[in-house]
Design brief:
This protein has about 110 residues and is an alpha/beta fold. The chain has four helices and five strands, in the order E-E-H-E-H-E-H-E-H. The longest helix has 17 residues. It is globular, with a radius of gyration of 13 Å. The model has no long low-confidence stretch (mean pLDDT about 95).
Amino acid sequence: MAALSLTSSTVDEITVIKVDGVLDATTREQFADYLSLAGPDLILDLAGVTFMDSRALGLIVHHWQTSLASGARFALIGVEYSKSKVMWITGLAQRLPLYDTLDDALAAIG
């Protein structure tokens, strides 16, 4: 079973979830459960992701769309092409709110 570590903190009333490990079918339920507990304003720090599949991306897109619909703030930081190729293959990398750092994301969505 793939290891997944999820930790959260709050910065400027926005939940920041740090994701370390593999996001795939073996960790999808753990990731979904953790996301369901997050507040409406969310930043996902994906710098520690070693692999992401389409199911995990689907979960992220669902939370992004839910945030947009409710007027909440949402961003992804630390996304690396080599570990999250599925974002580029699907074209979502051009649509999702991607930022290099937490400070960049806070400046853009804060």
